[in-house]
């Protein structure tokens, strides 16, 4: 990676206007067709093979197709045909592997939002593979970046050619989905049975000792048996991949010698990020990604993509011109009344204008492509509230949500909303319509607060443990509408959550101002790493408590890669730019017995979840007592062994007992039989001292067997030891117990 100084020192190419006549034209150029959009290799008229190019560029005056040879020499010719603002042409003889881009001309009038600049080579929004990397020297900006008058800094057009500094699209083989996936067996795991594992393709595989060095950090590395073996051993049913769409590194990071690691800076919605490919970037990355998906499917694991359709890497008015900004700035982005400025509901400088038909088409075409041609099983939508905005306000009847609801492909896959954005009225947890699940940050906050001793009472915790019916029991939604998580990529890792109370983001180069200050963390008495054995043991116990709570709660649990064996980021709660040991999973931790034990406990809890339908209910609890014996499908108990009263719910409490009846599970199995299971009692005690907990007697249970005890280093207890109902059971400080009702 070159430094920012080196980038700026590269001699600027001649102004675009001086070189227009020096490149040989693309010949011949046939009319082609306006559909499909992008570059599609096919057999054209008279049986001649070639590639059809089509680009929507509303308001543009002309569009040039630019083809590049292996030495970077450029040929360009106008796309003379325009149908409904789609510029198109067919070029005989253009084969897969051909690198290309577009130049789009029109008015330069930033005051009205018009930013056409033919000196800038533009990436095709429909490019299915990308070769090269954005380095962002001054020539990549549509405006003169160093203009002395700052109040008009973005209004003077830069005439320098950007082609030497930007990636190119790559024509790929156009295999039909029927050919690709005819023998693929998608797991199709029901939502209620799903356990999600959030991971970063590069970060998860970069340091894995069982993956060959040349495959680490790549799609092929994630497809390797050593990587898949860990996922299978844990028992997770789906991986949620941090963004794999082609993305660009932000200028401010490159200037500090850093890179965007997470990838939430998309610029190509059809292309697998080339930097994660082991096989090369001339289109081979497409096949490598598909092989990864197939390998995960063969292991029974679904693939969910974290997608960023709310904004692009072109940022605001001072950002680079890479693709959409130069194709039709006013058509693709939400602009303010002052059309020089962008409406920013994302905190990233721009927001895609999803109510525009062509923008909505771009997004839905992309989604369908990843399902039908790349084999993925679902999507997690970053800042989904921004996509649900109509003109300004968040609208659950918005065009985007309406299109998804009726689409025969997309309505069948897993859809997860991050239900907020940074704009006014953007917090929408619990508001998304049926078909959608949501990241439930209220679950995260309640569980963190309980285990750090900061909950004033346990009312909110009760809702979160039992599926958050207060948020989701409407419109036919189910408990699995709640994606429960304690940690995510954004924030502390699990180990850091119990080791730090303050963020330590100095390595990001932003004066520790980035990242949230609302961590709801407890460091167990010492900030950061320590050699104190008592503090270290307490931190491991707290990790077990948090994982056990997550995996015993109703809803869909989401784990973060490495949390199950003590991964740390050194207190960095915003490691988006740490493409290094901070952001990569350290697999050597699994060689340490205490972290091996945590990983084994995580796998045991997931196995229990898979084995018992009462732990993964498909319908909300009713809480009503049965006439025959007074049993409820869900009951709450105090340490006295008594059912919670209204006064108990409002009183300060560090303990809560949750009874889950396996005899009252609504619904039937595939053969129409009633679903029956064992019953369980979950005891959660966050207090500093031990308590004598009275186990509920009949009709709840005559005897109980302890299956999980987070007070033990392994979390596992000796089998066969039972306790009678009505007896007192000593519960150690800060402990979760899972008890099975024996009879």
The biggest beta sheet reads:
8 strands, parallel, barrel
Indicate the low-confidence ranges by residue numbers.
Answer: 1-11
Strand fraction equals 15-25%
- The residue-averaged pLDDT reads 93
Amount of helix? 10-25%
Radius of gyration: 28 Å
* Widest sheet, order of strands: 12-13-16-17-18-19-20-21
Please tally the helical runs, counting DSSP H or I stretches of 4 or more residues: 19
Main structural class: alpha/beta
Describe it:
- The chain is α/β, with parallel strands linked by helices and 743 residues long.
- Helix content is 22%, strand content 19%.
- It is built from 19 helices and 29 strands.
- Strands 12-13-16-17-18-19-20-21 form an eight-stranded parallel beta barrel. Strands 22-23-24-29-26-27 form a six-stranded antiparallel sheet, covered by helices on one side. Strands 4-3-7-11-10 form a five-stranded antiparallel sheet, with no helix packed on it.
- A hairpin with a 4-residue loop joins strand 8 and strand 9.
- Helix 13 (441-451) packs across helix 14 (459-465) and helix 17 packs parallel to helix 18.
- The longest helix is centred in the last third of the chain and has 19 residues, at 533-551.
Primary descriptors:
disordered N terminus; 743 residues; eight-stranded parallel beta barrel; 29 strands; six-stranded antiparallel sheet; single chain
Write the layout of secondary structure elements.
Elements: H1 4-9, H2 16-19, E1 38-43, E2 49-56, E3 62-68, E4 74-78, E5 81-83, E6 86-92, E7 99-105, E8 108-109, E9 114-115, E10 130-131, E11 168-170, H3 177-181, E12 196-199, H4 201-205, H5 219-223, H6 225-234, E13 238-241, E14 245-247, H7 251-254, E15 266-272, H8 284-298, E16 302-307, H9 324-332, H10 357-372, E17 378-381, H11 384-387, H12 399-406, E18 414-417, E19 436-440, H13 441-451, H14 459-465, H15 469-472, E20 482-485, H16 494-497, H17 533-551, E21 556-560, H18 593-611, E22 634-637, H19 646-650, E23 655-660, E24 680-685, E25 691-694, E26 703-709, E27 722-724, E28 728-731, E29 735-741
Parallel strand pairs: 12-13, 12-21, 13-16, 16-17, 17-18, 18-19, 19-20, 20-21
Antiparallel strand pairs: 1-2, 2-6, 3-4, 3-7, 5-6, 7-11, 8-9, 10-11, 14-15, 22-23, 23-24, 24-29, 25-28, 26-27, 26-29
Helix pairs in contact: 13-14, 17-18
């Amino acid at each position: 990676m070159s430094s920012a100084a080196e980038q700026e020192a590269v001699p600027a190419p001649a102004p675009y206007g001086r070189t227009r006549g020096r490149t040989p034209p693309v010949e011949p150029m046939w009319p082609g067709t306006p559909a499909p959009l992008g570059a599609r290799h096919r057999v054209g008229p008279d049986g001649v093979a070639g590639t059809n190019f089509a680009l929507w560029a509303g308001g543009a005056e002309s569009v040039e197709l630019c083809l590049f040879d292996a030495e970077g020499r450029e040929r360009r010719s106008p796309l003379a045909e325009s149908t409904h603002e789609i510029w198109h042409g067919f070029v005989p003889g253009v084969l897969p592997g051909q690198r290309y881009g577009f130049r789009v001309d029109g008015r330069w009038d930033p005051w009205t939002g018009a930013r056409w600049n033919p000196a800038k080579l533009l990436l095709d929004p429909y490019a299915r593979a990308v070769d090269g990397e954005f380095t962002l020297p001054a020539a990549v900006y549509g405006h003169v970046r160093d203009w002395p008058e700052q109040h008009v800094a973005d209004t003077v057009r830069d005439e320098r050619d950007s082609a030497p500094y930007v990636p190119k699209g790559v024509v790929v083989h156009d295999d039909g989905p029927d050919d690709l996936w005819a023998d693929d067996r998608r797991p199709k795991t029901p939502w209620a049975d799903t356990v999600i594992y959030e991971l970063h393709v590069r970060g998860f595989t970069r340091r894995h000792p069982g993956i060959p060095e040349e495959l680490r950090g790549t799609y092929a590395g994630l497809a390797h048996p050593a990587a898949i073996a860990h996922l299978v051993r844990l028992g997770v049913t789906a991986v949620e991949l941090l963004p794999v769409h082609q993305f660009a590194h932000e200028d401010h990071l490159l200037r500090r010698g850093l890179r965007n690691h997470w990838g939430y800076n998309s610029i190509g919605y059809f292309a697998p990020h080339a930097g994660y490919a082991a096989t090369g970037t001339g289109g081979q990355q497409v096949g490598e990604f598909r092989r990864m998906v197939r390998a995960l499917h063969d292991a029974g694991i679904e693939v969910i993509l974290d997608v960023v359709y709310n904004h692009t890497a072109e940022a605001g008015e001072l950002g680079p011109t890479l693709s959409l900004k130069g194709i039709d700035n006013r058509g693709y982005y939400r602009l303010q009344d002052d059309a020089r400025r962008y409406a920013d509901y994302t905190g990233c400088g721009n927001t895609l204008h999803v109510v525009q038909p062509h923008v909505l088409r771009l997004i839905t075409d992309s989604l369908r492509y990843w399902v039908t041609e790349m084999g993925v099983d679902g999507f997690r939508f970053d800042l989904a509230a921004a996509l649900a905005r109509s003109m300004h306000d968040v609208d659950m009847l918005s065009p985007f949500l309406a299109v998804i609801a009726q689409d025969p492909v997309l309505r069948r896959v897993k859809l997860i909303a991050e239900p907020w954005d940074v704009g006014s009225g953007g917090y929408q947890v619990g508001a998304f319509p049926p078909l959608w699940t949501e990241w439930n940050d209220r679950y995260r906050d309640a569980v963190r607060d309980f285990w750090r001793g900061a909950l004033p009472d346990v009312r909110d915790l009760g809702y979160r443990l039992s599926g958050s019916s207060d948020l989701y029991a409407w419109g036919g939604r189910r408990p699995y509408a709640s994606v429960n998580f304690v940690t995510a990529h954004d924030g502390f890792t699990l180990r850091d959550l119990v080791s730090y109370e303050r963020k330590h983001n100095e390595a990001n180069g932003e004066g520790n101002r980035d990242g949230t200050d609302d961590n709801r963390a407890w460091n167990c008495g010492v900030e950061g790493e320590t050699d104190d054995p008592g503090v270290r043991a307490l931190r491991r116990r707290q990790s077990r408590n948090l994982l056990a709570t997550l995996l015993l709660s109703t809803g869909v649990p989401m784990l973060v890669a490495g949390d199950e064996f003590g991964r740390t980021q050194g207190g960095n709660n915003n490691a988006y730019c740490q493409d290094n040991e901070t952001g990569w999973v350290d697999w050597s931790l699994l060689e340490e017995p205490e972290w091996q034990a945590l990983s084994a406990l995580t796998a045991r809890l997931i196995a229990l979840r898979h084995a018992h339908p009462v732990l993964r209910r498909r319908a909300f609890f009713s809480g009503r007592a049965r006439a025959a014996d007074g049993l409820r499908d869900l009951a709450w108990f105090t340490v006295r062994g008594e059912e919670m009263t209204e006064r108990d719910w409002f009183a300060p409490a560090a303990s809560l007992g949750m009874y889950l009846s396996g005899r009252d599970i609504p619904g039937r199995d595939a053969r129409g039989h009633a679903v029956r299971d064992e019953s369980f009692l979950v005891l959660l005690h966050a207090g500093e001292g031990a308590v004598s907990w009275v186990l509920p007697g009949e009709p709840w249970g005559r005897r109980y067997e302890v299956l999980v005890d987070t007070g033990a280093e392994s979390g596992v207890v000796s089998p066969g030891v039972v306790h009678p109902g009505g007896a007192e059971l000593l519960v150690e400080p800060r402990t979760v117990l899972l008890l099975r009702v024996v009879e």
